[in-house]
Each structure stands twice: as structure tokens, then as C-alpha cells.
From TrEMBL:
The keyword Cell inner membrane does not apply. Binds 1 potassium ion per subunit. Belongs to the TRAFAC class TrmE-Era-EngA-EngB-Septin-like GTPase superfamily. TrmE GTPase family. K(+) binds at residues 236, 255, 257, 260. (6S)-5-formyl-5,6,7,8-tetrahydrofolate binds at residues 28, 90, 129, 464. This is tRNA modification GTPase MnmE. Exhibits a very high intrinsic GTPase hydrolysis rate. Involved in the addition of a carboxymethylaminomethyl (cmnm) group at the wobble position (U34) of certain tRNAs, forming tRNA-cmnm(5)s(2)U34.
Amino acid sequence: MTLMQTTEYDTIAAISTPPGEGAISIVRMSGEESLEVATKIFKGKNLQDVQSHTINYGHIVDPETNEEIDEVMVSVMRAPKTFTREDIIEINCHGGIVPTNKILQLLLQNGARLAEPGEFTKRAFLHGRIDLTQAESVMDLIRAKTDRSMQIALGQLDGNLSQLIKNLRQDILDVLAQVEVNIDYPEYDDVETLTTRLLKEKAQEVKARIEELLKTAGQGKIMRDGLATAIVGRPNVGKSSLLNYLLHEDKAIVTDVAGTTRDVIEEYVNIRDVPLKLIDTAGIHETQDKVEKIGVERSRRAIGQADLVMILLNASEPLTVEDRQLLELTKDKKRLVILNKTDLPQKIEMAEVKQIVAAEELLSTSVLKNDGLDELEERIAKMFFNGIENSQTTVMLTNSRHIALLHQAKDSLQAVLDGIEAGMPVDLCQIDMTNAWDVLGEITGDSYQDELLDQLFSQFCLGK
């Protein structure tokens, strides 16, 4: 399906600010009848006569009872120079559940309907205001957890990824057109050889560019969703204290009683621009307590699902069986092994630790004294950003849908190369090249299915 540029839709309304109390709430409306609906409940200037992109003072009044609801500022933005390319009204009212909901109800009673989640952004896409990657970046921007993830989302909203994909598609289209000309109007005896060489060179070039882009996928997804980081160790080695330090608040209960943490605690934290989804786990040890057993089992699962594991060892005690089991359990994971409680006399066998743990994984801290924690943060940032700073691309893949489609496009280009290698006719190889062009179009939304749009925009906020 292709984009619709001039389709008319009914008028939608929704609250665009978070629910609850605040200084200001915004009720947004979009559609052909937005001005007409707003005029029915607005007391002040005639909104249908004011200039576009102006803010107008007045009051919202119930037209049936003439009851004054709130003192407001109403923004009037006329099509097509709006986000949805439709007439848009935004009512800025006093923040609060009652006046905000009352204003929305009046709009719905006077000709608007309640917007579906993401419907404003969906209309912007359908009217050609933005493409699908830009639409998806809107929610990435809203959900950004660090300055860096915000910058990535802004770049995508500005069209960085869109332009790159469009360039790839145009290069494929150019070679497909040349292949068609060569097949339909051969001027030389060796035209098939020349055409095959042209197709092979372009397939190799575009495939290499896609592979370069896919190198950013791992880091990009972490920037979007957070680095799942499990804090593990025996009971009472300082896991909850470390979590509280990183969060800068007392989220987890800290006592000298083993087994205080009986469940998995999850929190997001920004460490040197790396978004970490911290998981403070119950201490892993043998226990007869039924509740503790459940917590320990969840801790083991958290280790398996983690992108990074931080293992805390008590430097003031010798290694235990549980410590050795943890080190063995995580030997194939990306990890940091933290010798905690270095403010106490050291009793841990360092020679044995160094035989098991690589030097770059090992560091010493005293969470109680805040010693070594700056180095911990630096290590995490270095592990994550290593190689990204010198990347030649300004685009980072953060979206699973984009990543999957790029892999499909790469596979189609590989099929072109395999076909050429096997001596297949040019017109058959051309089918795989065309498929790569189509798949890349799904990323930007140049081709799409209605089911895809419904699924994507249903994940958006109401009013966005």
C-alpha cells in the first residue's frame, strides 16, 4: 500500500499530557472540523477568524448550561502546516484531572471522537508529513533514558535513518533500471556479461553498507531499551548497597541480616550516558525458606537474561562454594567481578580469583566508603561505548523491526550473489534484487500493510 496524501478523516481529540495534577494540561484536536468544534465551547475571539499559528485567550464554556469550565489559551494551527497536515486545535488549561477531562468530554459531545493511541502520529505518516522511521522515533524520544538516547531519537526524527535507507533503495533502483535497459535493448554481444557484473558489483556494495549499519544494532537496542544488568552475589555482600548508590536513593533495604532481599528489584539508571536496567537479585545460596527459594531461582533466571552481570564478592572473607559456582555460572557472560568491602581486612584468596577472572573483569570497591565506584562507572561506559565513538556512521539502529528487515534485505542481496555465482540467468537474479528494494521500503513505510500500522501505533501514548 502506498501513502495517501489527500485523504480526509474525522475529527479526533485526546489529552496529550500525563494524567494527574500539574501546572498545565493540553487537550489536542485534529481534523477538518477542529475549528468548528472548538468554537462551540470557546468564549473569546471567533477561532474561525483568527490567523493560523496564534494563541488565543478565553474560557471554555458548556454550551448547554452556559457553565464556565476553565480559563484557557487556545492554539489554532491550520492545515497543511501542522504535524498531521490537518487543522489542529490545542487547548491549554489548568492542570488537573477534573477540568481536563471535562474539556475533553465537551469536545466529544460537540463533534469530535476520542483518538486511538498514536493516531495523531499515524495521521502525520498517512498524510506524508513523516515516514515510518520518523513516526517510530517519536516514541523513542518520549522514552529516552539518557542524553545520548535522546540524541539518537532526534537524529532519526530528523530523517537520518530515512535518508540512508532511501539512498540504498535509489542505488538498487538505478541498477535495476540499467539491467532492464540492457536486457530489452542489447547493443553488444557481451551485454549479459556486463549486466551480470553490474548487478554483482551493486549487490556487493549495498550489502556491505547494510552490514556496516547492522554493526550498530546491539548498542542501539541497548540505548533504546536499556542494558539489562544483574547484580548478583551471596547474601550480604553489598548488592543492595550498590544498587542504592547507583540509584542515589535507598530503594533496597540494607541490613546485616542475610536474605533481606527476597525478590528481584528492577530500576533504570543512567551511568555515563549508558541506560542500565539494574536488577538487584536475591542472594544466591542454598536455603530451606520457601520464599527465599523462589527469589534465588528468579536470580538465576535474571543472570541468564542479563546483558551484563556484576558479581559482588566479599573481599573480607575467603571464597565460598557459592562464589565459585557464581563465577562458573557467568564465565561466558559479559561481566564485572567486584571485590567489595575492601575497607575491611582482606581474606579473599587473590591468587585463586585471578586464575578464574580476567584482569579486565576485576575491580575493587568499598560501597560503604564510596571507594572505587567512579572506576566502576567508567568500566561500564567503556565496555558499552567501545568502538562506537569512532564509528563512521551518524545513524544507530535501535528498532527491532528495522534490524530484522535489514537482515532480510541483506539475505536477498546475498541470494543475488549466490545466483550469479551459480550461473543463473540475470532476470532471475533481478528478482532477488527487487525483493531487497521492497524490503527496505517496508522500513520507511513506502510499502506497508494496514495490520503493521495498527500494531505499531497501538504502542503509542494516547494523545500522541
